[in-house]
Amino acid sequence: MFRHDSFKHKKLEPEQARVKRNVPTVPEKLYTKCDGCRKMILNSDLKGNLSVCPVCGKHFRISARDRIALVADRGSFTEWDAELTTIDVLEFPGYKEKLESSQLNSGEKEAAITGQARIYSMPCAICAMEPSFMMGSMGAVVGEKVSRLFERATEARLPVVIFTVSGGARMHEGIISLMQMAKTSGAVKRHSDAGLLYIAVLTDPTTGGVTASFAMEADIILAEPDALIGFAGPRVIEQTIRQKLSPGFQHAEFLLEKGFIDMIVPRGELKKTIGQILALHGGSV
Amino acid sequence: MFGKILIANRGEIAVRIIRACKEMGIETVSVFSEADKDALHVHMADESYCIGPAPVSESYLNMTSILTTAVETGAEAIHPGYGLLSENAKFAELCKACNIAFIGPEPEILRKMGDKDQARRTMKEAGIPVIAGSDAFDDAQEALEKAKEIGFPLLIKARSGGGGRGIRLVKSEDSFIDQFCTASSESLTAFGDGALYLEKYIYPARHVEVQILADKRGNTIALGERECSVQRKNQKLIEESPSPALTPENRISLWDTAVAAAKAVNYENAGTVEFLLDRDGNFYFMEMNTRLQVEHPVTEMVTGIDLVQWQIRIAAGMPLPFTQADINPKGHAIECRINAEDPYNNYRPSCGTISLLHVPGGPGVRFDSAIYQGYFIPPYYDSMIGKLIVYANTRSEAIRKMIAALSELVAEGIEHNGQLQLDILDDKRFKSGDYDTSFMAEFGR
Question: B135 near B118, Cβ under 8 Å?
């Protein structure tokens, strides 16, 4: 067997003068390390695959607008209440700056986008939460937008489709944020009482006050593979109950097994699945 | 000129590129899979890095690993060899984004010629003769209508295929729909694109290709042709240059057409234009290979031009110092591909340790390979273990030299196709030079 020094690595003088070139560099945002398989994935491959890792199938988080574009018929989305913005009524320290940086990062005014769209030509009220806006946390504006979504949908007799991603109630708004849980739940109930369909799609992560309110109140609850879904985080629970949690605890597959959700749908099949459910419940294709 | 080049390939072609770099005073970086840790290219390069497990999808096709290695080692250029990433437009684009020169054509050309349907249309528009055929279809019924127009027998070809893969012969209308659907699903699996186009089946025909070299300033020249009609299942076995089928007149015409084809897409670097030649001396564009070919040594032998070195120089921006008038191929060269397989046992692939190796030598004999005594041939990769190339003044002398060289080749511990190559060289049709692509199908009957 050869060794590396089996060959004499005698270097010849370059036949041509070396030309100084740009130093090879990997541009920022060329690839991303997948948390699932630890492989480096080209961002173009990731984007072309709906932000799902082509190697291990991990579903990366996507923006609210990408969510809507994923399922809504092209050009069918009309936004509602886009002008609503948060006022820091409690003057919570650092909240204003946090809001500003979130708006800058996400390009959105708040952590939820609502409106009306068509899915396979079937009209519906739609909401998607924005992970890069304070991890989709629910304050007064998110609660108000979600409540108005259900109220308008009830009035127009539309089904509602919501994509949740949230760290829970927004602590910077104290009791006001907690009150949104009751407010949104009331709106969901009135929509339900009117005999209308509500589909929730729980995406990674859906936790805290959002799980404890409108996310878990849907008629049909779908989830993306491996999404973290829970109220308190697993670490907090472990520390409180002083017990090791089961593997996969609070993940979509675990919740499906325990009957908390109805179905796990990979991102590529979401539009088709939601379309089928809407059609089954009276939408006309 | 580049100071350091990364070779994104394995086997004999990696060794061939390392040799060219060494001669030019360029440092080399090789990459290898876990199964290739003992491969020759790993030891010959100045630096070597493992880029992943044995399957090519996780190592030699792993773009991020290769690019990261190039950036970390400061390699200014990547030579992709043939196969693997050599015709991958996305990879060429990523190299550009990382300030690394891709030794090959621009991504745009790779994309244009990689889409065989678009390539066909581009050539047609440029006035290059193409075989009667169709644009690409997804729908079998629509394709059938066009098929009836073209006439049977015909070939169904994958738009994104190449290298002889994704081709089906349909002899009659009855089996067309079945064959189309099977070919489409196969093509979707193999190339990620199920679109197929149709082509009139020209039979009997010869496979003749022209080697092109083009610099960044638009100087495009033909370096002679190669006859590649000895093929089994569209995989070449023997190549020779010049082709015994061409007259001096149609040789010039073929070269001119190949140059026109390359110019039609503003081609740059080394490439090959493949043609089908019918009995009447008419030739038709088949496809353009936008990379170095396995059989490039026969062209090097008759022209005296080192194609790999010129690929590197062109990528570094050097103009070609010669013109078409300076190209006068001399003598005759033949290449036999040595594959680790048992041709007399249904071409069963063979792997294992080479317990004894003797490589033929002497004047005009060249063996491009990456095997050595004690080397274990891994089961994961292509079965080609070497290329035996001979050069002589005339075709008959070259055949004699090849027979002598093949007789001298010893590679014990594995099965190889040396005996089959000897039998082919001994065949009357081959000796006469009057053979076509049906040769292997009829051989030995």
Answer: no
Tell me the one-letter amino acid at B52.
G
Per-residue pLDDT, B162? 66
**Could you say which residues of chain B have pLDDT below 70?**
162-164, 445
Identify whether residues A38 and A166 lie together within a single domain: no
Q: Can you give the residue range of the structural domain that contains A50?
A: 28-60
pLDDT-based confidence at A285, cuts 50/70/90?
very low
Q: Using a cut of 0.80, tell me whether the model's pTM lies above it.
A: yes
Min distance B99 CA to chain A CA atoms (Å): 5
**ipTM, interface predicted TM-score of the complex:** 0.74
Instruction: Note whether A84 and A179 are same-domain residues.
Output: yes
The answer, yes or no, to whether residue A6 has pLDDT greater than 90, is no
Q: Mean pLDDT across the stretch A178-186?
A: 97
* Pair (A155, A35) in one structural domain: no
Domains, in order of start, for chain B: 4-103 (3.40.50.20), 132-200 (3.30.1490.20), 205-442 (3.30.470.20)
Question: Does residue B291 have an active-site annotation?
Answer: yes
The whole-number pLDDT of residue A114 equals 98
| Active-site residue, selected from the candidate residues B120, B159, B291, B366 | B291
Q: How many domains does chain A have?
A: 2
Same domain, A56 and A71: no
Tokens of A186: 């009331």
DSSP secondary structure string, B260-280? HHHHHTT--EEEEEEEEEETT
Contacting residues for A85 by C-beta, under 8 A, at least 6 apart: A109, A110, A141
**Average pLDDT of chain A to the nearest whole number:** 94
Query: Is A114 inside a domain boundary?
Result: yes
Residues of B in contact with A20 (CB under 8 A): none
Q: Of A201, A189, A194, A188, nearest to A162 (Cα)?
A: A201
Query: Which chain B positions have a beta carbon within 8 Å of A23's beta carbon?
Result: 74, 99
Q: Is residue A215 part of a domain?
A: yes
Which residue among A20, A43, A60 closes a domain? Answer: A60
